[in-house]
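Board work, copied verbatim: Aminopeptidase N
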Amino acid sequence: MRTDTPQAIYRKDYTPPSYWVNTVEMGFDLDPDLTRVATRMTLSRNIGSRGKSLVLYGESLELVQLRMNGKEVGKRGYTLGNGVLEIFNVPAEVTLDIETALRPNQNTSLMGLYTSNGNFFTQCEAEGFRKITFFPDRPDVMATYKVMLRADKDKYPVLLSNGNLIEEGDLGDGRHYAVWEDPFKKPSYLFALVAGQLVCQEETYKLQSGREVLLQVWVEEGNLDKTQHAMDSLKNSIRWDEERFGLELDLDRFMIVAVGDFNMGAMENKGLNIFNTKFVLANPRIATDADYAGIESVVGHEYFHNWTGNRVTCRDWFQLSLKEGLTVFRDQEFSADLIGTDSGRAVKRIEDVRVLRQAQFPEDAGPMAHPVRPDSYVEINNFYTVTIYEKGSEVVRMYQTLLGRDGFRKGMDLYFQRHDGQAVTCDDFRAAMADAGGRDLSQFELWYSQAGTPRVKVETRYDEVAQSYMITLTQSCPPTPGQPNKLPFHIPVAVGLLDSGGRDMPLVLDSVEGGDDRSVAPTTMVLELTEPSQTFHFRNVREEPVPSVLRNFSAPVILDIEYTDAQLAFLMANDSDAFNRWEAGQRLAMRRMLALTEAVKNGEALDRNADENALGAAFRATLTDNALDPAFCELALTLPSESVVAEQMDVVHPQAIHQVRRFLRRALASALRFQWEVAYQSNRTPGAYSPDPVSAGKRGLKNLALSYIVELDDGDAHKLAQSQYDNANNMTDRIAALSALVNSNAPGKDAALASFYEDFKQEALVVDKWFSLQAMARHTDVAAVRELMNHPAFSLRNPNRARSLIFSFCNGNPAQFHAPDGSGYEFWADQVIALNTINPQVAARLARSLDRWRKYAPELQDRMRAALQRVAATKSLSKDVHEVISKSLAH
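↓ predict structure ↓
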């Protein structure tokens, strides 16, 4: 058990640094057992700062030498302890020389400088630079960097760092060197170096200005044939940022490096992006359609950070969403624009909202709830959350909804004009948007300062005589930790009205001056909800409409609106807004699933005649509508996940939810078998594999159809899955067939699992898929997962492998994880404790699997609490894990 309580850091306590760093020069003598780092920095005292002490941060370092203006600093001139080096009597202008020693081979946290498969890598965000040298390691301290790397030439032939290569050569003793210079000021979290045995694909690329730049994708030997998609994604990203936002690559080269041991997806270090291999390596043999899309998105995300995060960065870590939420929005828009079609954009929007609802809405309702701009934290690594990223993106999207696409671009232009080269705040971004758009966005600040997911209740009334239609919107937001009461948000609510023929009606608001010319009236209108409750009056409404509310998910809220089953089926069939068309189907399915779950809890028999209810009819209509995009059909015909259903319940019973979802899938499979088989056959993609959106959409619908058919668990279904597995020419189809087999009673499933591993045991990313598939299979219990942990390919030290098995089981197999005997919670505690000593950041993310424990049935709560308390009692608990566990138990 921790004997100390980690201290919280508060946004209100922010003060500028006492000294600014102007320049940094670093020399690395790279050795895996003992690397020496010589750092020279020039500093200037901050105007207004009266103190003469300089505070630098350092962790897991040996201080070898400290010199100030060329003179050694004696032990009376500084103190060192608890990760803080304080130097006394520092002049207003000073040059510091610091030599440190560190041991990359022993660095299992994968923060700072570490080794992976014999190569050197760094990860410095958020506070990893202090594991390399003593430094004022905070994002508002920006400096230019010049770096010399020295290493054994045979072992480490490639030496990379930020910026531009300005010199390289031999040292004459079997070692060589490279000097890199980054001409742009940056915070220390963007520092990076890579050294090792690597090969690259490179291309020159001509920017719109005519300047040519060098693009490189670096990988380990044997992976060069898996880099083309990442390179294409990088070129598309550069082109898109030029065209959409007028932003040009500012360096002579841009490098991506792939590493198999990485805590995150990727990192935007200036000019030297370091990526998890998962988001670089792809070819048809090893990567699925989802992998290809993920690579495109993440490559775009990290490249776009070059301006939204690097050129303009965060003043402090409370402003993290300033760069992350904004850049997620940019990568979402990039992927949607690249698809190019309205249906493709809609599918992308639906996918993004599904992530938000499955991950961020629960976070907003749990003990780790925090605003998009937090007020405090204990460990900043715990705040790289879906609230910061995905909800932050939705906040940025609302600016575009309120200002329009052109108005948003003007706001972005003003933001860069004002703040290029600076470390700024979320308020600075909001001010740029408000000033460029000529809008008062002061109330919009509450999206940054208030946690929780707002609820918007919709009430409607039609006056046939007056031909008027009223929509009353009422907002509320539940209490969250530290915020019992909430002020009204500024919420853009996009609405449309459908007539009895399913057509959009022209919208004329009473509050809008002008004539009643219906030919020029819009069919979608953004209502701005700023009060606790507001009523909006539409005139010239010639029949009672069916309202389509929150089109394109115009705000990250929970919408409370009473629809009949018939209205939902009508919207699912007719709404011109593809998001709300999908949403209607999800509401219909959710209503059915909640009713059946309540029946299971009450011990009632389930009604097996699914084809006679509105859901079955709606599924049949969607399956047989050849005008619909297959990618949209796949989403529309996918039932809400067990975790999403759980969020709709006051008391969660995981076994009942699982039973109902399986029952409903089997019922829909049985009632619509012929339609599923037609969809399967008509969406085949013969010929060479292509990850383009049209082909991927067809494969998605085909493989969803296969999963429904295999629910019937008969011989014909097993043969269909086995045939697809045996004959697949791409990973998408092969893994889908294997998943169908593993989640059935097919006699060949064990042989298929064994053959799959044998075929791909040399491909780490595919082995991750193999572990993950088994972890989430409905038959996999705790004992099976423990057995898989003994597999020679499993390693707890590799974050990807730990996530593929342990995280997949704890977060993706709720029925088995929440086993009534509590064995899943015991397993969870074992792994959190083990990971805590290896990689606290990964351990803390796993710890969050139980942070919603109070929402479950009482008998499960007791076992969850015991597991949480067991972790809390562990000696030497990291700050990362301590914060999560203590908040989970307290709230």
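Residues 313-515+523-557 form a domain with the Neutral Protease; domain 2 fold (CATH 1.10.390.10).
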